[in-house]
Specification:
With 166 residues, the protein is α+β, with helices and mostly antiparallel strands. Helix content is 30%, strand content 29%. It is built from four helices and six strands. Strands 1-5-6-4-3-2 form a six-stranded mixed beta sheet, with helices on one face. Helix 1 runs antiparallel to helix 2 and helix 2 runs antiparallel to helix 4. It is globular. The N terminus is likely disordered.
Length: 166
């Protein structure tokens, strides 16, 4: 599981293509895709995230924390890209480990400086604490982001359920 050395892509030269895709390297057991246009679409993100986490056996505290992470990614899409989608997937890594994947994608303006956007208190918008993306990265076990200016942003974030010892 990685949370520190993540592939970051930020291409400004040439048109480029976003390559990150949902479900890579895992078996998808269940998937829910939510179109994000209006602020109230975030309510669906929270509802479906908590429902899927509960079905997968995550703890109540994990439900709240991970729903907040998904909500943050959805809010960023609505705020900065104006529209996009968020896929929530229940996944199996092939080693009998169950997890949740959040895949956020948009065709918005992209992030000019991905590294800066992942640092605490950075924001391209006034009236923002700049804690969202760094918090999502900290909460999740795996976090991958790619962004191309003028093409959009994709984020894949995964959290694996901790198995209780017998």
């Amino acid at each position: 599981m990685s949370n520190g050395n993540n592939p970051l892509q930020n291409e400004e030269d040439g048109p480029g293509e976003l390559k990150l895709s949902p479900g890579t390297g895992c078996r998808v057991l269940k998937r829910k895709c939510i179109q994000l246009i209006h602020s109230y679409d975030n309510e669906l993100v929270i509802y479906h995230m908590r429902t899927m986490l509960s079905e997968a056996g995550f703890s109540k505290s994990d439900e709240y924390i991970l729903a907040a992470a998904a909500s943050e990614l959805a809010t960023n899409i609505i705020r900065y890209a104006k529209a996009g989608e968020l896929e929530i997937s229940l996944i199996d890594n092939g080693a009998n480990q169950i997890g949740i994947e959040i895949f956020a994608s948009d065709k918005g303006p992209g992030i000019r400086d991905v590294e800066a956007a992942l640092s605490e208190h950075f924001s391209s918008e006034k009236n923002s604490l700049g804690l969202g993306l760094p918090s999502v990265k900290r909460i999740m076990d795996e976090f991958h982001i790619e962004s191309i200016v003028g093409r959009g942003t994709r984020i894949q974030a995964r959290k694996w359920r901790v198995h209780e010892q017998d």
